[in-house]
Specification:
The structure holds three protein chains of three kinds.
Chain A lengths: L4 H27 L1 H29 L2 H9 L3 E7 L2 E6 L4 H26 L4 E2 L2 E2 L1 H20 L3 H19 L6 H32 L4 H14 L9 E2 L2 E2 H16 L8 H4 L5 H10 L1 H11 L6 H24 L3 H21 L3 H28 L17 H15 L12 H17 L1 H11 L3 H11 L24 H7 L6 E2 L5 E2 L4 H12 L5 H26 L6 H6 L4 H19 L2 H12 L19 H11 L1 H13 L4 H8 L3 H9 L4 H74 L6 H23 L4 H8 L2
Antiparallel strand pairs in A: 1-2, 3-4, 5-6, 7-8
Chain B lengths: L5 H21 L3 H26 L5 H31 L13
Chain C lengths: L1 H29 L16 H23 L3 H21 L3 H26 L11 H24 L14 H9 L3 H21 L5
Helix pairs in contact in C: 1-2, 1-3, 2-3, 3-4
Classes of the chains: A mainly alpha, B mainly alpha, C mainly alpha.
Amino acid sequence: MNGHTYEILLALGVLSPFISFWLLVFIGPKLGKPLAGWFGVAFGMGVPLLLASYVLMCWLGEDAASRAMLAEHAFRYHWANLGTVPILVGVKLDSLTIAMYFMVAFIAFWIFVFSVGYMSGHSDEVDGKSKYHRFFAYLSLFAFSMLGLVLSSNLLFLFIFWELVGLCSYLLIGFYFHERVPQYAQMKAFITNRVGDFGFIIGLMLVYFQLGTLDLDDAARIFAEQYAAGTGIFASSFTMFGWSLATIMGVGLFCGAMGKSAQFPLHVWLPDAMAGPTPVSALIHAATMVAAGVYLVARVFRLMTPEALMFVAAIGCITLTLMALIAMVQTDIKKCLAYSTLSQLGYMIFGLGCGAWIAALFHLITHAFFKAMMFLGSGQVIEGCHHEQDMRKMGGLMKKMPVTGLTFLVGVLAISGFGIPGTNIGLGGFFSKDEILAVAWVRAFDWTDYSRHEAEHGEHHALAVPAIDANDGSSHGAIDGEKQIVLASDPQHGDSHAASLHGEGHTASESPRGLKSTAHGEDAHGRAGVFSRVPAMPKWMFYLALFTAYITPFYMMRCWWMTFMGKPRDEHVHDHAHESPMMFLPLVVLAVGTFVASYFLFRDLISDAATAATIAPMVLATDGHVHSLAITAAHHWLITGVGGSFVVGFVIAILIYGRGLNIAARIKGTIGIQQVHTVLENKYYIDELYHLVWVKGCMCIAHIARFIDTWVIDMTYLTLAKLTERLAAFSGLIIDTQCVDGMYNGMADTAIDIGEAVRRPQTGRIRNYVLFAAGGATVAVVLMLLYWGVASPDQSVAMLTP
Amino acid sequence: MEHIGLTHYLVVAAVLFCCGIFTMTTKRNAIGILIGVELVLNSTGINLVAFDRYMGPGRLDGQVVAIFLIVLAAAETALAVGICINVYKNLSTVDVDAASQLRG
Amino acid sequence: MFRSRFHTIVLAALGVVALSTASLASDAAGSGADHSGVTQAAASGGWLEVLLFYIAAAAACVSALGVCYSRNIVRMAVWLFGALGSVALLYFLLAANFIAAIQLIVYAGGTLILLVFGVMLTSKSPWARFEARKIEVFGATVVSGTLFACLSLLLTRAHWATTDSAVAGTAMSALGHSLLTTYLVPFELAGVLLMIVMVGAAHLARQDK
């Protein structure tokens, strides 16, 4: 394909669900219950999936050079000017977009299919009217927003779609808005997201004012230029919390991601969002929408300073740990999955923060597949168990719903990082999550040596090898013996710098920031300078992430075992359990998708995009290909440890929950653990804290305001009103009654009198009127005579002569 | 013999005018009032033609207006007789004093 | 009986006088006719004209007073006929032959007949009488008397800028020409008016359903 075919096809894929949305809004009620759903499936999501598949095929057929050329010549429509900044509408065309687009379309399609089955078993009536078409209209709108978000080449449009996605989330969480819980959940989600979006807007404003563009590529280019020259945003001496303005910009943009990807401390909405219908939880709150935050960070990665990235990593690290701990004690199956989602999102954010750009996005995509699948599985379970969500009442469901159980197990294995260390056999997290950990290890322990080495030598042969490696992403497995760290490279010199790195000396000149810059060797030296500025990561972050890697398999296995294995704990629930065939088709497809995504396609696409998408002079993306055949000696023990983590987690979980809940209850009863358990069950009392600080705080302020209102303002006005009333009474009594009324009454009486007097001659007899007229004429003539004088003919002559 | 001038005709017209006024005011019969109106109109006609004759000979304005006057008088009479008939139909009399619903 | 016969005789005499005077006046007015179509009125101060004027004026005044003092509506109509005829005579004397002719034709021949028809259609008896109150008669007398007195005083005292030297009669052709050029619009409007009146009168007098 050439020209703008890619953009056109992708844009058509975005428009299709939008049109579907409007059609469902207007003709949905006429289509009726199953038809509207199938219409949404076919038109809202089927068309984008077909287009996405076709585009993906074509894109895979392009070689690196033509991909770069297509991305460079991507169509940009000059839509409007924001001040002097042109707003260009276009498609961000690179491998990441294609991969994300396909992932969203694929998962959303199968969730749509699942939704048709799900809604057939659920009430679609709200306030006595069928809202069935509305559900699919919202889903279509969501698909439109999410696909548009992925395609946006412009931060402004990204933000618009971002908000639309948030709106869809709001609408779908509160789909059953006549119930209390969804109402609160939707409001909570929306308001929490607003908090994050506030930061996002600050970031956008800084991009707009300091970089003077909103286009992603332009912003990155200008940012790099400003960094090299020390101008623009880097010239500002403004600091806040010890952060420079550039860092604040990065942190601000990340705040948006914190809201949407539910990072601590804005994570509170996501568990509550499980009040929505299960397909919605799967689509929005597990697979795609929450990934938008990660996607945003990946997109603005080039605008992040090392300090901002450190902040990102810290937030991710805190989130992944805290949420994993909560997940351990959850008994609600959906809540358990929600907290595992939070934890995994924390992993992604943490990965991005410590530079594992490729690994984090890879984790995002594999996670999307298996988490969507697990949510759908949980929906299947809940549906089968008569709307029972408490895992303590389940158990032994494997016989009743084998497909669900098995696909769920695939998800559990994938999220736990199941695989055989030292080989290339594994699932999902085995590749992506462990890779994040490896990068984190390098950043935490091996960094000082590395950066010193880098700084001392100015050029580093070790860099060159993986740089080449990154350029043909598939051959990385063949290289060994070196730390496999791919550095971000400059777009203009993307191909040439590898060669120049091999070269010897450069005629370097000092830039204002102490960075060496030359015509050709700028990148290596520039990066060296940056490297020396990037601090090593605190070790606790690595330890926490590693620790959580052991917890994840535990809680996932606990969840699966409690649900599917063991003896049935509630006969009623167990008897009712059944599987719906139409609903497990998506499960199987997504399970297969998890396998495929773990091995093929996505990893290559993301590493293909990485080179261009992480370019910025000060930004790095370390990419340890730890599962390749060329595992370094330094990583061996790590991989063995991490790779085996799932075994440890599984064994502990099975030991505890293998024979019912007794052991768990006994452990819970232990002093010390009991208190911790209580804290975890109450989610660290964060909701209560927020309630205390924000809700009660607001209430307190409101009470104070009300006090002032009642006793100061109202009193003042009441007094004024009383005074006015007195004045009015006085003036009414004296002035109004006596003077004004008197005057008007007098006028009225006079009018009546005149009327009475004038009425008399109005006899109604025409003859009298004639007489009066004639009398009038007579009087006139008499007056004429008297005026001119009877005996003065001369005057009358003068008067009457024409 | 004295000279017959404009004043003579005007005095005759004045006589007719005043008689018309008197007729209109004293006759209770609607047709009587109409007759009074005709008298007044005739006095006007005399005035018009006399002024034409003595003050603007050759201009014919007065005579033309007199023609219109006759036309109008005829039209007025036709309408007035129609009204009289209507009044008679409604009130069974042509006594104009009976038609005094508009009195104040 | 005697009274009615007397009135009839007087009226008949007046009619004869009027008609003969009319022919005389016509002769007197047309005596100076020349070929230009503009007839010269009788020489001012001519005895015939003076005589005819006084006869016509007296007839007009008497008829008008007759209208005033008749109590019978039919008699009033007859006196009106006399007044109209006298006025026609005066028109002849003023050299307005055409006006005089249509005065006779339209007024005496049309309007008066219309009035008589009105009388016949609207009275249960043609002799029905409605008398005005004395006070009204008195008021009317005072008003019209005063008016006449003042008007006469005014008229006789006034000095009119008359152009006696160019006393001229008028040919009908000149009148017609003027009517169809200078006064074309009023002429057409008069036609429209007459039609409206025709329709309106028919509507007013129609039989109720």
